[in-house]
Model the fold of this input.
Amino acid sequence: MTFDRRARAAKGAARTLATASRATKDAALHAMAVRLLDAQEAILAANAADVAAAEASGTTRALIDRLRLTPERLGAMADGLRQLAGLPDPVGDVVRGWTNPNGVSVRQVRVPFGVVGIIYEARPNVTADAAGIALKSGNAALLRGSSSTLASNRAIMVALREGVADAGLPEDAVQLVEGDRSVTAEMMAARGLVDVLIPRGGAGLINAVVEGSKVPVIETGTGNCHLFVDASADQDMALDILLNAKVQRPSVCNALETLLVHADAAPTFLPRALAALADAGVTVHGTDAVRSYSDAVLPAREDEFDEEYLSLDLAAAVVDDLDAAIEHIREHTTGHSETIVTSDLVAADRFVAEVDAAAVLVNASSRFVDGGEFGFGAEIGISTQKLHARGPMALPEMTSTKYVVTGRGQTRA
Amino acid sequence: MTFDRRARAAKGAARTLATASRATKDAALHAMAVRLLDAQEAILAANAADVAAAEASGTTRALIDRLRLTPERLGAMADGLRQLAGLPDPVGDVVRGWTNPNGVSVRQVRVPFGVVGIIYEARPNVTADAAGIALKSGNAALLRGSSSTLASNRAIMVALREGVADAGLPEDAVQLVEGDRSVTAEMMAARGLVDVLIPRGGAGLINAVVEGSKVPVIETGTGNCHLFVDASADQDMALDILLNAKVQRPSVCNALETLLVHADAAPTFLPRALAALADAGVTVHGTDAVRSYSDAVLPAREDEFDEEYLSLDLAAAVVDDLDAAIEHIREHTTGHSETIVTSDLVAADRFVAEVDAAAVLVNASSRFVDGGEFGFGAEIGISTQKLHARGPMALPEMTSTKYVVTGRGQTRA
Done:
């Protein structure tokens, strides 16, 4: 099917979805979960073929691990759909409302975007996840996955569409977009058919979509996240947060990538921190000041402070004071999550006010910047742009609003 | 000055503005108003030169009227700045906040975008207006006006920057972007320096910015606004709303462009409506069904239903029923403001739910879809896109948010 036909079918389905009740949408999500588990054999067989092809082409183990499905992972995908059914429906929420002096009443009401395009990499679980979030928020989804997961995605999509149909909703509400790279270009050019594009994946993918798209984009994020240990920091607390933010799950966007230590704290903090990091298997890439505390610290190239390692590596520097820390962050931040550990109220206030990022944290691990940890129950990604949504994006962020204006014949003077 | 230097200066100024108190920003707005009136002689002289050049080059009277400044118009610009000073500051507003089970507290707080670029046509009043709205919302403004108003804009900008400096804020908070068309392209490419671009003007300008920009854009709107007179409409009310929406100010985006009449209402409504429209000087371009009621109705070409006349012209058609009206609107809407006049609750509900636009109106004139009429006190434009802001955009729509996460050393399990 051509992309244009697919997008028009999605637009038609979006009209039905926009006025579907929560009960109907939740029934569809439960049915999608059932169909997904019913199709386990077919989905795992298709996935095995994707994995075999990836192995034959020399794909790294880390990528193959993302690609591989197991009965447990499929179960988690089904659970995710059921959890979505339990969340409140953002559509129809009245954001605000008032009555004008002339008696005209105005309500601002949440409505779905319409058609949402999601472009993502080789993670077949995103197919179910993104389809579910889109459906719950009343949007039709056009899912553009990686060619390396095509067999898995096709098998998953068959099951999801059966579930949608089971609930009496149009199955074109969820569609896989297949084809070569030119199809991605078509998606990015489809103003008027696609209402918003969300790229999920590495920096290269995201930049290509942001730069090439005529359709509005929500940029989800790379995270070059910093931790600043202030002179007044409780150093036990700083050490806990440092290790948690770096080590607990290094491959994700809210993991720590750079440690900045106030010069006054460095002599007491860095020896302990570097030893603990080494014990945890972290390779530190530091400035000369950092290296003076440990021979195990590798020299950091200047461009290393712009790197999102996503691994057990950490850049580290000693800074003169709070101003220098804020200045370093301004220069290198990707605007995701930035943390200060301090006991000084003025320092905390200034850090919060002057650091420009989706999230700023005081005395807590950046790993909390996440839709699940925020209690949102679902997350389509973490926005690092300032327009529309910034930070973890959940169901309300998948909607727009509409003003409903009602009168009794009033006209403007 | 190169655009890059200007944008960097704006970014520096934006950091100061972001933490400026409301009192300081309001003082700047009052000082800008004073400086504008003090500079009346210089501004009017510069404007006279722009007007003379426009007249010599054969510019239309309507455009020259937009371009021309008078002491009254300058006074209105100053009043606009003072009114902004009276409005609440959106920056620092806590949108929501909660404490997670682990004791970590989260607040979502409004923050400025940073640097806002505004690209607009030959209306020198927009220079003061946009600079004021940007400043009040804590944003630095890069204003790209039309070359035909350059002398006026330069004189206005001198005064505005003096006012900004009077309050102790950096004068690079408001800047005029000069140069040939290549500068507009630089603005659209300045990801990382410019946080958001807002084009204000005709459809050609807006499309060029939306299609060409790598910086996120808020699309402000063309309005092909429809009025549907339902079978059950109170026809006196429908006539009032029709005339008000079409005639009260035909050159603006929330004015009516297309009339759709239910077939059952046509025999009684159209003769009265066509006579009243003719009396008001409106030229109606109708389908054959409409023309059967009056010889004065011109034949409507099919593409006329996509036209935003912005003049005393109106397209008109008779439709079989509500479904046909909704279908017609879906095909031709620009997503601005769509109106139904009806006494039927089911028809009103369906129209509100099924018509996809920034505003849907029941029994009220579309001329109410306006920041001033909504009581917002200021308006930077009316968004017809679904991302970030939809409908009239005021001070809160000129901000982003930031999550502030505070703990006592919590880490993620």
Summary: Residues 225-368 of chain A form a domain with the Aldehyde Dehydrogenase; Chain A, domain 2 fold (CATH 3.40.309.10). Chain A touches chain B through 70 residues (CB under 8 Å). The first helix of chain A runs from residue 3 to 18.
